[in-house]
Amino acid sequence: MYFSVNDLSLNTNRKAKKEEVTRVRGLHVDIDARVPDGGWPTAAPTPEQLAAFAAHTEAERERIRRLVVDGEGWPVSLPSPTAIVDSGGGFQCFWRLHDDEDVQPELAEGLNRVIAGLLDGDAPTVDVSRIMRLPGTVNVAGGKKRWRGRVDAPTRLAWADWQRRLRVSDFPRADVTPATSSSRGAKRATLPDDLPKLGSLDDLPAAVSSRTKMLIVNGGDPDDPAKYPSRSECLWAVLCDLVRAGCTDDVIAAVILDPDYAVSGNVLDQPKPREYAARQIARARVEAIDPELAELNARHVVIETMGTSGKCRIMERIPTPDGRGYVAFQSFEDFGNRYDHRQKKVGTNKDGKDIHMPLGKWWKSNPQRRQHKTLTFLPGGADVLDGDQLNLWTGFAVQPVPGDWSLMQSHIRDVLASGDAASAEYITKWAAYAVQQPGSPAETALVFRGGLGTGKGAFGRAMMQIFGQHGIKTQGAAVLDSRFNVHLRDCVLLFADEVDWDSRRSSSQLKGMVTEPSLFIEPKGVDATNQPNYLHIIIASNNDWVIPAAPGERRFAAFCVSDHRKNDRAYFDALFAEMESGGLAAMLHDLLAIDLTGWHPRASIPQTRELSDQKLAGLSGADAIVREMLWGGVAPGVERAAHDAELVVMLRPLIRWAIENRIVASDPGERRMAEALKLMGVVRRKLTVRGVGQKWVWPLPPLAEAREAWAQSLGLQVAWPDEGDWSEFPG
Question: Model pTM greater than 0.85?
Answer without folding.
Answer: no
